[in-house]
Amino acid sequence: MDDRMYCLFWQIIAPASARRVWQLDNHFGSLKAAWEAPEKEIRSLFGTKVDAADALLRARNTFDPVREKEKLNNIGADFITYKDHNYPENLRAIYDPPPALFVMGQITNADQLAVALVGSRKATSYGLSVAEQLSVALVKSGISIVSGMARGIDSAAHKGCLSAYGRTIAVLGSGLNVIYPRENRKLMERIAASGAVISEFPLDSQPEAWHFPMRNRIISGLSRAVVVIEAGEKSGALITADFALEQGRDVMAVPGSIGSPLSRGPHKLIKQGAKLVENAGDILDELGITTLFPVEESTNASVALNRDEETVFGLISVNPVHFDEIVDKSNLPAQKVLASLMFLELKNLVRQLPGRQYALCKFING
């Protein structure tokens, strides 16, 4: 068996324990030597952690490589190891890269230029809009989008990328055959078809709480920068930001309403020195790169509007505005406001949100 198979073996029996695995590699000289090492010698490395040593040795003694590879093949998945040329270079550079990754789809060289968009699972319509539009604008600039396929901001970031036919990578906190949340099955299939869904957890691994902080270090490790969009003061997104700082990545944050609890996380990061993000250009500037493809301008100069449309458009901002409020402030009949909103949507200037609310469609590219 070649070296890469031993990377796979250790990843399966010791998931999310990369530091421990690399310690074994360093002590024995290779992962192959560690795999073949006497039980007594392995136990000595664990010291007083007898239970941990016993669990690892049991897994090693009962491991069936043929069965594990067949399980991956059955769901159309594969694995890449630290020894492979297509192992993500950004991830290879962190302190504790996983010896192997389980993959559906493909990771390519283009994904070296990646940005993570992360945030709350209970995002507001503002946050969802920002995540989607940022994603679209970055994709048009040749950036791959990384996130965790969770509800809220993560899903919006992936969907924005897919809508612009870009590359996106979803990092799971479970095995590839355990879809979480369940309603994201179709989203996962779309991501795998045009990008990649990855995990360091073996098949059948459930989405246990401790998996997600470990997953977050992979999200930041794959990325050149982490952008936080809506997060509470104690949030997984802030854990991702902490990992990013440890890994030498840029940390950025999108500001929000001072009255929203979900603004506390981003505002805390901004106070601590994170780059304030208003548009995709802010992210590109911080990374020190120029756009690979022109980012669509958000100016309205070339878009013809009639008088009613101009009136209605002037009342809509980044923050969602309810239809009734637009009617009240415009002094126009409701039917005219409705017609104007419809044409503004067709002109890709305004988007309708749940609850009869409307917001600017092109805020992010401004």
TrEMBL record:
Residue limits of the Smf/DprA SLOG domain? 79-287
Please state the span of the N-terminal signal peptide per the UniProt entry.
none
Please give the biological process terms from Gene Ontology that the record holds: DNA-mediated transformation
Q: Highest taxon of the source? A: Bacteria
Q: Where is the DprA winged helix domain?
A: 298-355
* InterPro entries, alphabetized: DprA, DprA_WH, DrpA_SLOG, WH-like_DNA-bd_sf
The similarity annotation says: Belongs to the DprA/Smf family.
This one is known as: DNA protecting protein DprA
Biological source species: Desulfofarcimen acetoxidans (strain ATCC 49208 / DSM 771 / KCTC 5769 / VKM B-1644 / 5575) (Desulfotomaculum acetoxidans)
